[in-house]
Amino acid sequence: MEAKTLFDKVWDAHVVRKIADGPDVFFIDRHFIHEVTSPVAFLGLETRGVTVMYPERTFATADHNTPTINQHLPVADPLSANQLKALESNSTKYGISHWGLGHQKNGIVHVVGPENGITLPGMTIVCGDSHTSTHGAFGAIAFGIGTSEVEMVLSSQCIMQPKPKKMRVNVNGKLGKAVLPKDVTLYIIAQITASGATGYFVEYAGDVFENMSMEGRMTVCNMSIEMGARGGMIAPDETTFAYLNGREQAPKGEAWEKAMAYWKTLKTDEGAQFDLELNFDAADIEPQITYGTNPGLGTGISRNIPKAADVKDGEASYKKSLGYMGFEEDEQIIGKPVDYVFVGSCTNGRIEDFRAFASIIKGRKKADNITAWLVPGSHIVEAQIKEEGIFDILTEAGFALRQPGCSACLAMNEDKIPSGKYAVSTSNRNFEGRQGPGARTLLASPLVAAAAAVTGVVTDPRDLM
Fold it and tell me: Can you list the domains of the chain with their CATH numbers?
């Protein structure tokens, strides 16, 4: 019997039809939609006079351009208000589950899916959002799709998809002090560049991922797209099963036992072949921070900004990137002034991220020059922050907690970093203008964000621990 990778096992089980020299017709188990990419897709259904084939397989939540304060008030921006209304009316019309503003289960799509047990091992999952790769942490094949593909999935529960190549990234050894999953993924991207995994689906393997929490695994898989990959996945194990057991939409009773029997087969067979395999040593990873305008332009926080000759992006584009950021080659990053700190997004808006942030700021005060936006990924996370006493730690240190949403990750609501200002951000992208026109973003972990929040400058969190 042929040795197969985890990716092959899940992919091959979902191919409805193979097309010679073309894409596979690929069945989708779970489809997440939000207010930005779905309205045009629903309009397409109406134009063609077709309906939603399996409404119970689609889940709607509002997140991208929702406000993160005063969510009980009408949404001020007319475009956002119209998109939110369209999501609600379309969901109602087609019998789709909808968690809108004010709903107790509302939150960022890639946070609420897993925490409600909608995301399960061995599934295929899509959403009109590039960071759908998050769900691969459960041993699922998950990736973002475009608006026309959203319409295709709504109407047929299938998608036309060429099978990507396979890459395995192994990280073995023990992580050092203050090194979080975000640092692991930023390190990998810095090593292979923001396009180094283009054309591949990545499996993450080795000690580091086996010992990582589910929340950490979600952070890593979330960032797969930032190195050009179609998605990323981690084999399900006891950590996965413990996380899922008892969640609202996870299987129960006999169905759970049956599911577990299948899930335990979802691992790469001995001798299975990958198109590319990379190996990294955990000991080489320190807390990371980006200095440029793509997630691959990052380095260990104790190091200087590299010289143009030492990066793979090309000298002209590298110098343009540094020019936008207001940085120079070979400059020290530690001590750089910071104006904003953002903790949240589908990358780092979970309870473990706020625990990490609180561990640094406890007993300290927010720096006077810092504006901090702390945005939980869901109402469930918001409740946990309050139940665990983290809210009190934040308040005593001079921080305020905002309401759930994508917030300053992509500046589609009021949470925009002003032009020229520096933000240490736990989100996933540092492109020009991503957090607001002219905004300058330094991607980092919640510990690095916390260190900046209490010192007002880029600071190595190990110095505060």
Answer: 6-161 (3.30.499.10), 165-284 (3.40.1060.10), 290-464 (3.30.499.10)
